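B., you asked whether I could sanity-check this one before it goes into the benchmark set. Here's the sequence:
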Amino acid sequence: MSDDDDTLKPNGSAYTLSQISQYLSYIGLDESYHPSSSPVLDVTYITTIFQAQLASFPYENLSIHYNPVHRIILDPQRLFAKLITTPKRGRGGYCMELSIFFSHILRALGFSQIHYSGVRNRNRTNGIPQGNYNGYVHLVNIVTLPNTNTQYVLDAGFGGDGPTFPLPLTEHTIHHNSIGTQEIRYIRDWLPDQRFRDESRGALKHWVYEYRNSPDKPWNSYYAFVPEHEFTELDLENLNVYLSECKRNHQTYTILVIRFLRDEETRKIRGKVMMVQGEVKQNLGGRTELVKVCKTEEERTATLKDLFGVELTDEEKGAIRGWASELKG
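And here's what the prediction gave me:
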């Protein structure tokens, strides 16, 4: 290891090359993926990194609930400590945490053309997105690979319904989303309540992330964004305060955990296991099945460890007492 490994932070990343070595070891990739080995930063490379990221760090909002201060800190070094350097407890994060963390990882790996885009989600009823698009409550990373003009969207924090590979920003191209028969695509369209639509004066349509669970089903949309509208980490801090601290937001009263499962030989995503409050479900090939219903905190924290690999400290377990999401049996 050279001195530069402990000091150099490429492309404005918060992380050093030494931290990248720790990251690669954590996600199960060897030093051939390290910048010092001069890997080709192509689609194959970034897909391998992205799928290892998804499988290694679950989507989870536990730091809102099992936390004495019930607050999420987005400082990149705090995120690195939570996800990598503290004793391995299987922790992940929710969208703001995972996407900011992954952005700094990608920059340190050598991707210089990368920015955040704010995302408008739709609310779900019985798991199905419906109605109008909300204000900005999510974000994605948009990356242009070296020596290409193609942009790829890397959504490291949407949970079980997000793309399981870097999704090229091309319209109407249909992709299989790894698990079962679900297909996904992007289209460009105006949002229903979007009033300024004069493209000759700079009005921009949104890119809409759509899905259908099989080729014979109709398309439906999860979220929409404008890639040209870059968000900064200060913008994301404002969103973070609302999402993690406003009592009207579902994140503050509902525990959500989603872990992607990866085939160890192919390194491809093969399924997912999910927890919503006390209900645990899994999907190993297109069909979602109920696995368990936790009725007490003791059951839930044990299930987090056994099925999700997430181990909470005694202090964290005690912090949920009296909180809206506590299971009381």
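One thing to flag: The mean pLDDT is 95. Otherwise nothing jumped out at me.
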